[in-house]
Design a protein that fits this description.
The complex is a heterotrimer of chains A (about 240), B (about 230) and C (about 240). With about 240 residues, chain A is mainly α. Helices cover about 85% and strands about 0% of the residues of chain A. Chain A contains nine helices and no strands. The chains are: A mainly alpha (about 240), B mainly alpha (about 230), C alpha/beta (about 240). Chains in contact: A-B, A-C, B-C. Chains A and C meet through helix 1, helix 2 and helix 5 of A and helix 2 and helix 3 of C.
């Protein structure tokens, strides 16, 4: 009898060491989100329209005249990304929860963090897509040149941190009735460091400030990304296991 | 029927006495500050509540981690108690900071690191309470609460550092390390004593409130348990 | 195949399952009956590794829960009353996705076979959003058998289906059960359960109140048996 149980647990251990399966599952989740989005385009169109509306509103809210534009652009862009981002995060998780698909994912024998990373990468891709469209539109509307490598770097790094923590919080918020309003409330206080640093670094690159003055901000973003991806990895299990 | 334990009653009395003494020290023992005058007296309670609020904040984070490791509901009550009380303490600190700021810098508010971070923490607490409110299942509520306190625990120091990269006009009390700081003032021994006594007083008050709140939480659980038993 | 001893499940202060014992031999088809709120869904969630037991021992397919959950999941197929399918993908893509998550070998062929089994080959390229509820349930079963599990759990699979859809579902269920799989199915529909199951268990007030094999009871007596077990408890 004890031989049997030993054989069984050895088998279980061997199965769980299948790290190739981790990446396969991760890729499958990302592919699934992209394929579904390609069909319906609900998420992207909602995020995009919202982002463009926000930018339009800013035009009337702030005097975006030529002199102040370059200093204010950074802030306007990041506020837009932050709000469009929460929209995407919420919808992405809601789609899983509402048809019970979240359970479907949890029933599979894959590591929970593969699910987390899969969803996070999917969310990141959507956010980057929206940002990639907003940048040229903003450039055209306000004649501020946003084709700046440094700016793009900041946007990518900042989005990574934002989405990492956002995906984690969205997976909690989705269980509440007030999920749409709760996610921004949960997310913004925790995301303030990465948002501040991204705004400052973006403004730095846009304003042609010397690189050593921008470095502290970049370091902060990178540190934030690393710390919170690690924390998310450790904590995600507690969120999904009942 | 459980009554308040003797030790807690004693603690309550001690905190009340210390509080009265602290007020006395602030108004009568500590000298009037040269530049700011009477308004400066706000400083003692402001620093005390801020410090103790910070302790509460850390307690919440640690309790969160402990809950996740042990799944013992007591730690969830501890975490919640720490957040609720720390919320009030920070609020008091912020308001007092505001009262100080008006005559000192001519403005009710300033976006400098400590004040802004305190506000962020308050928002974090509010978010924590809203999160808990939106979840029915008590175990899930406790788990999510714990996760969020951990996230806050880690992000707040980073927030502070981020805001500190901006210039500050908040007075740095024990020797200025920030060259951009203005509004420095040095403290005479009576002032130092008043400050330390205030900090100790508020720590005692915090512990007293904390204990009461945890008892309240435990008793509420007992009531719930009895109710469920009766419903069967 | 399934071995549950003294299972206790609490939600906060409320105890839903109170020391439940449950044993299923390989190949048995158990209909789990019980009044609403008795804890059937909770019990199934624990068996399917979605929830953790508060106390007690749970073994499925020889592996412990929750410690060896991944191994259990590999050998488990679950159909609940929610479809667990992605509306914006078609049947083919849904199955392919789950196939990859379960590391199913020879995926293309397997997907084809499964679609054949549940009678949806003709509509494989249609978006699941456009499926009727009956078709969705059949596809859900397809998803559940894709990785050839030894144990299958069905949580009220007939919910929301009309007569025809129910009959079709039953055919699929019989096919699925016929391959020597161990099945536990919760149901409100005594008549259907009577048709499919080899054993009837009644879960009431957090424990298995009664259990009887199909041969030992007449289908006319089933309702009386159920009522008595749900209210009082007989052995």
């Amino acid at each position: 009898m004890s031989d049997n149980t030993q054989a069984i647990s050895q088998k279980a251990q061997a199965e769980s060491k299948d790290s190739f399966g981790f990446f396969r599952a991760l890729a499958a989740v990302v592919w699934k989100d992209l394929a579904a989005e390609l069909r319906s385009r609900e998420l992207l169109s909602a995020m995009l329209v919202f982002a463009l509306l926000v930018i339009l509103i800013f035009n009337f809210a702030l005097e975006l005249d030529p002199k102040t534009r370059s200093t204010v652009s950074s802030g306007v862009l990041w506020v837009t990304f932050a709000f469009a981002g929460t929209l995407g995060l919420n919808r992405s998780m809601s789609m899983e929860k509402d048809r019970g698909c979240l359970d479907g994912l949890l029933l599979t024998p894959v590591d929970r963090s593969a699910i987390y990373f899969g969803k996070a990468i999917g969310n990141l891709i959507f956010m980057l897509l929206v940002e990639a469209i907003v940048l040229p539109v903003y450039t055209v509307l306000y004649s501020v040149n946003l084709f700046n490598l440094g700016l793009i770097l900041v946007i990518v790094l900042g989005s990574i941190g934002y989405i990492a923590i956002g995906t984690l919080l969205a997976s909690m918020a989705v269980h509440t009735r007030t999920r749409d309003i709760l996610l921004p409330i949960l997310l913004f206080p925790v995301a303030i460091p990465v948002l501040i640093a991204s705004v400052k670094a973006s403004a730095g690159f846009l304003g042609g400030i010397p690189i050593d003055e921008i470095m502290p901000w970049l370091n902060l973003i990178i540190a934030y990304d690393v710390i919170f991806i690690a924390v998310a990895y450790m904590v995600f299990d507690f969120i999904v296991e009942e | 029927m459980e009554t308040t334990p003797r030790a807690l009653k004693v603690l309550d009395t001690i905190s009340a006495i210390m509080f009265v003494m602290a007020i006395g020290m602030v108004f009568f023992y500590a000298p009037t500050e040269r530049v700011m005058g009477q308004v400066q007296r706000v400083f003692y309670f402001h620093v005390a509540t801020a410090w103790v609020g910070m302790l509460g904040f850390m307690a919440a984070g640690v309790a969160g981690i402990t809950y996740l490791r042990s799944s013992n509901r007591k730690w969830d009550i501890v975490s919640l108690a720490a957040v609720e009380i720390s919320l009030v303490f920070f609020f008091v600190a912020i308001v007092m900071g505001s009262i100080w700021a008006r005559p000192a810098w001519g403005t009710w508010w300033t976006w400098e690191p400590r004040l802004t971070t305190a506000t962020v923490v308050e928002l974090l607490y509010a978010a924590y309470l809203m999160l808990r409110q939106g979840i029915e299942d008590p175990d899930r509520r406790a788990r999510f609460g714990a996760v969020y306190t951990i996230l806050g625990f880690i992000s707040v120091p980073v927030t502070f550092l981020a805001i500190r990269l901006f210039r500050t006009i908040h007075p740095v009390v024990f020797g200025a390390s920030d060259p951009g700081a203005e509004g420095d003032f040095s403290m005479t021994p009576p002032m130092l004593q008043t400050l330390i006594f205030s900090v100790i007083t508020f720590s005692v008050i915090f512990i007293s409130l904390f204990w009461h709140r945890i008892r309240l939480g435990n008793l509420a659980e007992k009531v719930e348990q009895l109710r469920l038993k009766m419903a069967q | 195949m399934i071995d549950v001893r003294k299972l206790i499940k609490r939600f906060g202060l409320k105890t839903v399952l109170r020391g439940l014992d449950f044993r299923v031999q390989p190949g048995e088809f158990v209909a789990l009956l019980g009044p609403n709120g008795a804890g059937k869904t909770t019990f199934l969630r624990i068996l399917s590794s979605l929830a953790r037991p508060s106390m007690g021992e749970v073994r499925v397919a020889g592996y412990r829960l929750p410690g060896q959950a991944a191994a259990v999941r590999r050998r488990l197929g679950v159909v609940s009353h929610l479809p667990l399918l992605y509306g914006d993908l078609n049947a083919d893509e849904n199955l392919r996705f789950y196939g990859r998550m379960y590391a199913v070998s020879d995926l293309n062929q397997r997907v084809k076979d499964v679609l054949e089994l549940v009678g949806l080959s003709a509509r494989r390229r249609d978006l699941v959003r456009t499926y009727s509820r009956g078709m969705q349930q059949r596809l859900a079963i397809g998803r559940a058998v894709l990785h050839d599990p030894e144990v299958m759990l069905f949580d009220e699979p007939h919910t929301g289906l009309d007569q025809d859809a129910c009959n079709m579902l039953d055919n699929v269920l019989r096919e699925v059960a016929a391959r020597g799989r161990t099945v536990v199915m919760t149901s409100h529909d005594l008549a259907r359960a009577a048709d499919l199951a080899s054993r009837f268990d009644v879960l009431s007030r957090g424990v298995i109140a009664a259990s009887v094999a199909r041969e030992k009871i007449d289908s006319r007596d089933l309702l009386a048996f159920y009522r008595q077990a749900a209210n009082g408890g007989i052995t």
